[in-house]
Write a structure and sequence with these properties.
This protein is an alpha/beta fold. 23% of the residues lie in helices and 24% in strands. It has a single domain, classed as Metallo-beta-lactamase, Chain A. The chain binds zinc ion (ZN) (2 copies). The site of one zinc ion has 5 residues, from loops.
Length: 267
C-alpha cells in the first residue's frame, strides 16, 4: 500500500483569522508529491514553512490542489498560488474540483487573470492557468500520477446556494480519508464518508448553534454512534468556541478528535 502522510496546517473557520488562527488546510504527502485540500489565504506561507514536505514543485510545494467550493476561506489563496506557478515555476496548477466550482473560481478571479501579464494583450481562460481534473457527483475519478482516486458525494452538501462538494480519497478502491467540506449536519453524507472501512473522517464543526443550514454543531456530531465518533477529526472550528467544543467532547466522554491530531500521521 502506498504510504500517505496527512498534515493539518489549519483547522479554524475564517472568523478565527482575527485571532491569528489558520483556516482549514490539510496536505497529504503522497510518495514524493504533495496534495493540498483547500487554498486558504495562508496556503503559500504555511507550505513554504514545511521544510520536510516533498514536492516536485520547487517553490509552491504543491503538486495538486483539491477545492470543495468557492467561499473565501477555501480559495482566497488561489490567486497567489496560480501566480507563483506562472512566474516562479513556469507551470500550471493541477486543480481537482467539479467543473462548476472551477467555473465559479474563474468568475471570481477573471478580472485579474483574463489578459496575459506576459504580453499584456492575449486573452486567457482558466485552462491557460490550470490543468483541471474534473470531479463528477457520485463518481470516482483517478488523480493522474498520484495513484489515488477521489469519490465525490452524489449531491451538493447542505451549505450554500451554490455547489459545495464532499469526497472520499481511495487507494485501489479502498477508502483512506473522508472529507465533509462545509455542510450542515447530514446523516446521509456521514454514511457516505464512513462506509467500507475504518479510515479517518475530517468533518467540519463550524456552527455556532444547532440546526444551522450551513454548518455542523458539535452537539449534532455527539449524537453519532461511538464507532463513528472515534473516526472524526474536526476542522472549520470557530476559535471562540474551541474551548467549549473541547469541554463538550470531554463531558460526553466522546472519542472525537480535533483535526490537529491528524498531523504527521500516516493514513
Ligand atoms: Zn463555505
Ligand atoms: Zn468554510
Amino acid at each position: 500500500m502506498k504510504e500517505i502522510t496527512a498534515y493539518t496546517l489549519g483547522y479554524h473557520d475564517m472568523f478565527s483569522a482575527r485571532y491569528g488562527k489558520l483556516e482549514n488546510l490539510t496536505v497529504l504527502q503522497i510518495g514524493n508529491m504533495a496534495l493540498a485540500i483547500e487554498a486558504p489565504y495562508h496556503i503559500i506561507r504555511s507550505l513554504f514553512k514545511m521544510k520536510d514536505l516533498k514536492s516536485k514543485s520547487s517553490v509552491t510545494k504543491i503538486d495538486a490542489l483539491l477545492v470543495t467550493h468557492i467561499d473565501a476561506d477555501h480559495i482566497s489563496g488561489i490567486d497567489l498560488l496560480i501566480w507563483s506557478k506562472v512566474f516562479e515555476e513556469n507551470s500550471k496548477l493541477l486543480l481537482i474540483t467539479h467543473p462548476e466550482v472551477a467555473e465559479q473560481i474563474w468568475h471570481r478571479i477573471r478580472t485579474a487573470f483574463e489578459i496575459s501579464r506576459i504580453d499584456m494583450k492575449t486573452k486567457l481562460e482558466l485552462k491557460d492557468y490550470v490543468d483541471l481534473v474534473e470531479l463528477k457527483l457520485g463518481e470516482t475519478v483517478e488523480i493522474p500520477q498520484f495513484g489515488i482516486e477521489v469519490e465525490t458525494f452524489h449531491r451538493s452538501t447542505h451549505h450554500a446556494p451554490f455547489l459545495s462538494i464532499a469526497f472520499r480519497l481511495l487507494v485501489d478502491r479502498t477508502p483512506i480519508l473522508g472529507y465533509s467540506g462545509d455542510t450542515s449536519f447530514d446523516q446521509e453524507l456521514i454514511d457516505f464518508l464512513a462506509k467500507n472501512g475504518d479510515h479517518p473522517i475530517i468533518h467540519e464543526a463550524g456552527s455556532y448553534k444547532k440546526d444551522s443550514k450551513a454548518h455542523t454543531n458539535i452537539e449534532e456530531l455527539l449524537t453519532l454512534p461511538i464507532e463513528i465518533q472515534k473516526r472524526l477529526y474536526l476542522n472549520h472550528i470557530p476559535f471562540v468556541l474551541e474551548e467549549k467544543i473541547l469541554q463538550r467532547i470531554k463531558e460526553a466522554s466522546s472519542p472525537i478528535h480535533i483535526a490537529n491530531a491528524l498531523n504527521k500521521i500516516t493514513i
